């Protein structure tokens, strides 16, 4: 029958987890042989060196704080830390530390580290994939701008914020005049580049709080969630008209574009998102009927 001390040593020497003992300064007093398997360091390499020298620079502060808490409060702690292997790559260890106390005096810390690098990488990849799916659900794939679903949500949110307040909001609908001819003349690849440039030009004309969305094709929308009056809206609409008239360089040539804009103001043009969106669309087609390359405000009865 093995003695307890011999049994504990046998377990520590053969476990795949990294078992180590640090002094109050974080220097290795003991390191299990598994360090060589996982990180490439023999126990002799580590003795009397500081664990801080192996940690990623961004993790050192967290490790010092954890060590301080265990020393001063004599409590167990855990966390994730990146360790540099002898060959260079970083390994991520899920580490739990427990203070060693003898006769009410702190004499060191024992920690057990488990390599979770592959699991962490898989979880990170899954999180990024889920974030990408969520982004694509609410954004236009070509321009990266909010899509119709997100725009409608933003309008609803802006209406809730404006209820009972002194400020108003505006919804602008934009449609580029005779855009079909761009695709017919230059092809859809060039057409996509022009759509992207349309989004950039519109975004440069609005304020930081405003939202620019692509609804599809060459249709865009703008939400101005906080305005005092129509003059602010006409200023933005005029900027967009002027930005569209600037030269569009396409390969070795250039093209000319104009845009028509319909505007609906809350609360006069509607009290909910569907009404504002519908009435901005009505105003857009009124602008097109009146010659295009202009903006128009929604008026009661328009589109009936």
Fold and architecture overview:
This protein starts with a helix and ends in a 7-residue tail after the last strand. It is elongated. It has helices spanning 4-14, 34-38, 43-46, 57-73, 117-138, 148-162, 180-186, 188-203, 230-245, 273-289; strands at 18-22, 28-31, 77-84, 90-102, 105-115, 168-176, 211-216, 219-227, 248-250, 253-255, 259-266, 295-297. The mean pLDDT is 88. The strands form three sheets. Strands 2-1-5-4-3 form a five-stranded antiparallel β-sheet, with helices on both faces. It is α+β, with helices and mostly antiparallel strands. Helices cover 43% and strands 27% of the residues.
What structural class do the secondary elements suggest? alpha+beta
How many DSSP H or I helices? 10
Give me the side-by-side strand order of the main sheet.
Answer: 2-1-5-4-3
Query: Order of helices and strands, N to C?
Result: HEEHHHEEEHHEHHEEHEEEHE
Features:
five-stranded antiparallel beta sheet, Alpha-Beta Plaits, five-stranded mixed beta sheet, single chain, elongated, alpha+beta, Beta-Lactamase, 2 domains, 304 residues
Give a brief rundown of this model:
The chain is an alpha+beta fold and 304 residues long. The chain has helices spanning 4-14, 34-38, 43-46, 57-73, 117-138, 148-162, 180-186, 188-203, 230-245, 273-289; strands spanning 18-22, 28-31, 77-84, 90-102, 105-115, 168-176, 211-216, 219-227, 248-250, 253-255, 259-266, 295-297. The strands form three sheets. Strands 2-1-5-4-3 form a five-stranded antiparallel sheet, sandwiched between helices. A five-stranded mixed sheet has the order 7-8-6-11-12, with helices on both faces. It has a two-stranded antiparallel sheet with strand order 9-10.
